[in-house]
Amino acid sequence: MSNYRRVRVAGATYFLTVNVLDRKRIDLTRPEFRQALREGFKRTRQTLPFKMDACVLLPDHLHCIWTLPPNDANFSARYH
């Protein structure tokens, strides 16, 4: 497994990407996947708040730009 070095700054804005496992041809843009993502983001923000500045959903991956609250640098807890 890779050992990435990441800067963690409280209240910072982060660019995040997630891919479908092995880039399989699962179309994330289908309505049921979009709805599940919306619900997941909403549920996560109830306990781990963040501002979603931008989000791009493509068929096999997702890009997001999030800004975390002051005194919080734990973006990975929100994105798993």
Précis, in short:
With 80 residues, the chain is of the alpha+beta class. It contains 1 helix and 3 strands.
Q: Could you characterize the architecture of this molecule?
A:
The mean pLDDT is 88. This protein has 1 helix and 3 strands; from the N terminus they run E-H-E-E. 21% of the residues lie in helices and 28% in strands. The protein starts with 12 loop residues before the first strand and ends in a 13-residue tail after the last strand. Strands 1-3-2 form a 3-stranded antiparallel beta sheet, with no helix packed on it. The relative contact order is 0.30. It is α+β, with helices and mostly antiparallel strands. It has one helix at 31-47, and strands spanning 13-19, 51-58, 61-67. The protein has one domain (13-77): Alpha-Beta Plaits (2-Layer Sandwich).
Taken in chain order, the helices and strands follow as EHEE
Structural class: alpha+beta
- Count of runs of 4 or more consecutive helical residues: 1
What's the name of the CATH homologous superfamily? Answer: Transposase IS200-like
Gap between N and C termini, in Å?
A: 16 Å
β-strand number: 3
- Kindly provide the name of the CATH class: Alpha Beta
Mean pLDDT: 88
Spatial strand sequence of the major β-sheet: 1-3-2
- DSSP helix fraction: 10-25%
Radius of gyration, in angstroms, nearest whole number: 13 Å
Overall 3D shape: globular
Please summarize the sheet with the most strands: 3 strands, antiparallel
Q: What is the name of the CATH topology?
A: Alpha-Beta Plaits
Number of domains: 1
Proportion of β residues?
25-35%
Q: Which residue ranges are poorly predicted, with pLDDT under 50 across at least 5 consecutive positions?
A: none
Which second-level CATH architecture applies? 2-Layer Sandwich
